[in-house]
Every structure is written in structure tokens, then in C-alpha cells.
């Protein structure tokens, strides 16, 4: 990475047309990104688990044209509601991937997880699209594989911050931290020095509320700017990231549970104390958390939860306890899931 500066440098002629298909997973933050500066720079570093079973496959069909234009489809159907977010994305990446503006691009995307399930598809969606664009850049300029992924993470960030972390696994870190070599606010890096227990760690997502988001992430992030506790929160996240790195390496599940649950609850506490304030948890979210705590106490099974900016609950546990946890979900938690749905 020493000489690569992320700027596009053309060497070959642009192809007249082509088709590129890329796939990228979603991710769940353990240390949360909540708060940003312009443009898409996080106010604290974050760390995520990559969800390899929840991914988006995106193809871009490009044909040379006088003027840039794009179409966007999910499962071959036009989705005009996504156009404004994509317009912003393309305007932000203009200087970094200028070659794309010589084309008409047809973007077609498919998710492996149910559409409108309440699972954010922006992380997998933007990272898959960005990877396809970087792949085209690689064709034209011959950048290396490492550079391709860095560039994809960089431009994903400009679409949606958390998307920058989806390009790497089993964990990814986005945002500068003095203890993390090569960490950057502009793109994520792989974090792979994890204990074997975390390599196969499970995340089962309980779909408590499948409705569309009640508040956009961008609005939520903005509320951190005048938040009375934002400074303390950024310091806490910075500290948590360092602690989590140690825990991921040692495999200390007790500490892992403490840290990740504290992060989830702090994220929601920030929402509940911003101006305006809001609550994204539902009754089912709280009932699930209470049940998880009782189950952990009674069985000593290291089952824990995390939350994103919504009501759904991510259950985290080592693969060895899969059967017991599935039995518990089906007997005690399924009642809190909309249409009895969950995603493994
Ligand atoms: C709570 O990445 O969706 O999931 O950059 O505005 O698109 P934008 O925000 P987004 O925020 C994710 C917030 C979070 C925590 C996280 O994933 O780190």
C-alpha cells in the first residue's frame, strides 16, 4: 500500500462495453460507528463481524455513452426509491473513479436474505457495487488485488460508512486507532488475528420488526453532532475497540459478551438521549434481551446479543452451542419475531 494513493490513473483504453458481477456480504458491528464528519469520516473507529451467509450479488452492465446515466434494479425490477442515495454515491465517487462516467450502467442486484426483512442491505449492496466498479478499474489500470479491495472499501464508504467493512473478514476495522497498524478513516482493513472460536462464531438474526427504517442512519449520525454525551461516547468506543481486539485474540467469552452488549445498549442509549430522541427497540427486543440473559444465567451457555439501529436482535454464540440455541429460539424467542422469521 505504500505507493498506491487511491487516485485513478488510466493506462489502457476504456472497454466499449462489458458485464461484471461481484458478491459481497453484510456485516454486524460489535464496536459501533455512530457519528460522522464530512464526507463519511467516522468520529470513532468500529469493528465488525462479517456475515458470510447474508450477501448481495451485483452485476453492472456498462455501455459507452456520451453522457453518464444509470439504472438500478433489484431482481430485475426497477427500484426508483434507491435512486437518490445512488445519485449521492456517484457524485461522491466522481473524482476517484472518473472512468465510470463514460458509460450507461445498468445495475442489477440480488440479496440472499429476504428483501425488506429489516436487514440493512446497504452494507452488502454498496460494497458489492463498489467491488464491481473497482474490478473495472483493475481491468483498465492493472491495480493489484490488494489495491482493488482497498479502493472498493474506500468508495463503499462514500455510499454507506458501514459498507466499507464488508469487503473483509472474518472481522474488519474501519477508522484510525493508534493500536491498529494501517487503520484508516477512509477505508476498512481486515482484522484476522482472532481466536479460532470466533472464526466460526454464529449470528442468528431475529426479525422482530421487518418494517422499513423509522429513521435513516444519516439522520441518526447527525444527531451525534450536538449530543451532550458524544465526546464520552467516542472515547468509550475507542477504548472498547482496543479491549475487543485483545478479547478476540484471547477468546475470553465473558469479556466478549460484556463488551458487545454494552456497545449495543450504548448505541440505543445515544438514540434515546439525542435531540430529538427516539426509541428503535420494540417490546419484542426487550423481551428477547431479558430471555437471553435468563438463558445465559441458567445454562451457562455464552449466548449474547447485539443490535444495529433497529429493533432486530443479533444472537451471537459459538458454533458448538448451535443446537441448544436453536432449540431455545424455537421454544422461547420465536413469539417475538414478526411472522416467526429469523435468519441464520
Ligand atoms: C448502527 O453505515 O448505515 O449499523 O454511513 O450514513 O450510510 P451511513 O450509515 P450506516 O450506519 C451504520 C450504523 C450502525 C453501526 C455500524 O454498522 O457500525
* Protein structure class: alpha+beta
- Which percent band covers the strand fraction? 15-25%
In round numbers, the mean pLDDT is 94
Q: Specify Rg, calculated over alpha carbons.
A: 20 Å
Element pattern in H and E:
EEEEEEHEHHEEHEHHHHEEHE
Uncertain ranges: none
Characterize the largest beta sheet: strand count, sense, and whether it forms a barrel: 7 strands, mixed
Cα distance, first to last residue?
A: 36 Å
Please tell me what the overall shape is.
Answer: globular
Description:
This protein is of the alpha+beta class and 344 residues long. It is built from 9 helices and 13 strands. The chain has helices at residues 83-93, 122-141, 145-159, 196-199, 217-222, 230-250, 253-272, 283-299, 322-333, and strands at residues 17-31, 36-37, 41-42, 46-64, 69-74, 77-78, 103-111, 171-174, 188-191, 202-206, 304-307, 313-317, 342-343. The strands form 3 sheets. Strands 1, 4, 5, 6, 7, 8 and 9 form a 7-stranded mixed β-sheet that branches. Strands 11-12-10-13 form a 4-stranded antiparallel β-sheet. It has a two-stranded antiparallel ribbon with strand order 2-3. Helix 2 (122-141) packs across helix 3 and helix 6 packs antiparallel against helix 7 (253-272). The longest helix has 21 residues, at 230-250. The chain is globular.
